[in-house]
Amino acid sequence: MQIFTYQPPTIPWLDLRYVDRDIIIINKPSGLLSNPGIADYTHDCALSRIQQRFKDAILVHRLDCSTSGVMVFARNKKAESNLKTQFQDRKTQKTYITEVSGHLQNAQGVIELPITADKANPPKQQVSATGKVAITHFETLEVRANSTLLELKPVTGRTHQLRVHLLAIGNPILGDDFYAEQHIVDSAPRLKLHAQSLSFTHPYSGKQMHFSSHCSF
């Protein structure tokens, strides 16, 4: 059984990228929870750090603790509702960068494998014929000696979708200490998954917004 040791990074404490009266954009570091869990030690998270400066901040979506990258928070209930609806209706565009083990058979393609909860091993997820539709587009950016750098564009937003999809096709994400075998975990100092960009419609102005954060793997 894996023991979760939570030691969130403190430098920078909060990487703000954009703020207005309706939204806040941050670049979340790997190792920081998006929102607090039940245990007291999880109180230090992206949401609580933002709320120290902006008490009106509201969580809209999540990135896994080990995943870094662009996140949007709302500053009022109207913006929260608008943004959550955009995520639910798949009107946002998300791009991730990842480094996976091995080489893929095709340089680009689509992974369409339904995902459901692994009831025997919560909170893990698994591919199952009875699961919910899950779709991930991928494109090779660089083929390396024993790994591949990929760009991922998920259409759906299932829990752990990218990890589960890449594991299912035989190319687990390097550093994935939740799903991958130990030699894959040991191959990287962190999970090699980064939310590089996020696009959505501004909840007040209706303007198309695009935010990005570069990460070198």
Automatic annotation (TrEMBL):
It holds the Pfam family PseudoU_synth_2. It is an enzyme of class 5 (isomerase). This is Dual-specificity RNA pseudouridine synthase RluA. Its EC number is 5.4.99.28, 5.4.99.29. GO terms for molecular function: 23S rRNA pseudouridine(746) synthase activity; lyase activity; RNA binding; tRNA pseudouridine(32) synthase activity. InterPro entries: PsdUridine_synth_cat_dom_sf, PsdUridine_synth_RluA-like_CS, PsdUridine_synth_RsuA/RluA, RluA_PseudoU_synthase. Keywords: Isomerase, Lyase, rRNA processing, tRNA processing. The keyword rRNA processing applies. It comes from the Bacteria. Residues 22-167 form the Pseudouridine synthase RsuA/RluA-like domain. Belongs to the pseudouridine synthase RluA family. Dual specificity enzyme that catalyzes the synthesis of pseudouridine from uracil-746 in 23S ribosomal RNA and from uracil-32 in the anticodon stem and loop of transfer RNAs. It catalyses: uridine(746) in 23S rRNA = pseudouridine(746) in 23S rRNA; uridine(32) in tRNA = pseudouridine(32) in tRNA. The keyword Isomerase applies. GO terms for biological process: enzyme-directed rRNA pseudouridine synthesis; tRNA processing. The lineage of its organism: Bacteria, Pseudomonadati, Pseudomonadota, Gammaproteobacteria, Alteromonadales. It comes from Shewanella piezotolerans (strain WP3 / JCM 13877).
